[in-house]
Amino acid sequence: MALAAARRLLLHAGSRLGRREAVDGARRFANKRVLVETEGPAVMKLRNPPVNSLSLECLTEFTISLEKLENDKSIRGVILTSECPGIFSAGLDLLEMYGRNPAHYAEYWKNVQELWLRLYTSNMILVSAINGASPAGGCLLALCCDYRVMADNPKYTIGLNESLLGIVAPFWFKDMYVNTIGHREAERALQLGTLFSPAEALKVGVVDEVVPEDQVHSKARSVMTKWLAIPDHSRQLTKNMMRKATADNLIKQREADIQNFTSFISKDSIQKSLHMYLEKLKQKKG
Ligand SMILES: CCCC/C=C/CC(=O)SCCNC(=O)CCNC(=O)[C@H](O)C(C)(C)COP(=O)(O)OP(=O)(O)OC[C@H]1O[C@@H](n2cnc3c(N)ncnc32)[C@H](O)[C@@H]1OP(=O)(O)O
């Protein structure tokens, strides 16, 4: 209930802000963690420092921004990128999955599912400009896109690394990975929790193109121009044909998936693994 009210409030505030900024000349709207520019090809920038982790608030604002773009029939495509230097997204927020209660885990997971379904089944053309590290849920965001351009910086890695955290990528993460890189590569990468360098990601097909870092946005825009030249109706029907079965697989078992996640993440052993992983992240800083 509380979340639904927050969501209504955000939508309202978002549209007011959108109008105000439009008067200033720049066609854009924003909430705290997501900035959307609608001048030229629409660009959605995640800005949840330090690492663009997908907290509940960030997921909600992301979903609302997408909803607004979907409702604007003049917007046919969106470039998804990050405003945080060196980070595309650190994925799901570990602090939403650690040390909370089952009701919180269920609420969080419902919102993760909702964002995924909205992104994965979007009628718009989605191109990701991956300008930084993109582990786990960050990779998931990129995989939802129709085309992925990654910055050629060996410090940036991408992949579904859940098994390194002692957790298991849900079946719908896995389905999308298999759809993108094939069963054998996905099986190996999921078991090992592989984080691919840009060159490896290109080779295996996690991303479609790797370009010098200063060209990632211009390349994403030129890709968008090419995709925009395709008639919407045929492209959308084709996308739906390719993705429907994967999305339906979750839709038909959303509740069960929430229950599974909640009971899995609540286990002492899993909480212990997350604790150790969080400690490791802290220690890395020295
Ligand atoms: C059935 C269960 C399935 C659940 C599915 C889960 C999918 C997921 O997405 S799980 C999340 C997986 N994410 C990761 O493994 C990424 C972990 N983070 C990193 O590897 C690094 O932080 C980075 C490469 C993204 C960035 O490195 P950098 O050196 O720039 O920054 P750090 O000093 O490591 O981090 C800064 C700060 O942010 C905290 N943090 C990092 N990632 C997360 C996160 N995913 N959730 C919450 N918080 C995160 C990190 O602990 C630091 O915090 P402090 O400043 O307080 O120490």
Automatic annotation (TrEMBL):
Localization terms from the record: Mitochondrion matrix
Alphabetical list of SUPFAM superfamilies matching this protein: ClpP/crotonase
Catalytic activity, reaction form: (3Z)-decenoyl-CoA = (2E)-decenoyl-CoA; (3Z)-dodecenoyl-CoA = (2E)-dodecenoyl-CoA; a (3E)-enoyl-CoA = a 4-saturated (2E)-enoyl-CoA; (3Z)-hexenoyl-CoA = (2E)-hexenoyl-CoA
GO biological process per UniProt: fatty acid metabolic process
InterPro entries noted in UniProt: ClpP/crotonase-like_dom_sf, Enoyl-CoA_hyd/isom_CS, Enoyl-CoA_hydra/iso
Record key words, sorted: Acetylation, Fatty acid metabolism, Isomerase, Lipid metabolism, Mitochondrion, Transit peptide
Pfam families on file: ECH_1 (PF00378)
Coiled coil: none
CDD domains in UniProt: crotonase-like
Top-rank EC class of the record's enzyme: isomerase
GO molecular function: delta(3)-delta(2)-enoyl-CoA isomerase activity
Keyword Isomerase: yes
PROSITE patterns the record matches: ENOYL_COA_HYDRATASE
Major localization listed first in the record, in broad terms: mitochondrion
Pathway: Lipid metabolism; fatty acid beta-oxidation
EC number(s) recorded for this UniProt protein: 5.3.3.8
Gene Ontology, cellular component aspect: mitochondrial matrix
Keyword RNA-binding applies: no
PANTHER family: ENOYL-COA DELTA ISOMERASE 1, MITOCHONDRIAL, ENOYL-COA HYDRATASE-RELATED
Family statement drawn from the similarity comment of this UniProt entry: Belongs to the enoyl-CoA hydratase/isomerase family.
Complex and partners: Homotrimer.
Task of the protein: Key enzyme of fatty acid beta-oxidation. Able to isomerize both 3-cis (3Z) and 3-trans (3E) double bonds into the 2-trans (2E) form in a range of enoyl-CoA species, with a preference for (3Z)-enoyl-CoAs over (3E)-enoyl-CoAs. The catalytic efficiency of this enzyme is not affected by the fatty acyl chain length.
Protein name: Enoyl-CoA delta isomerase 1, mitochondrial
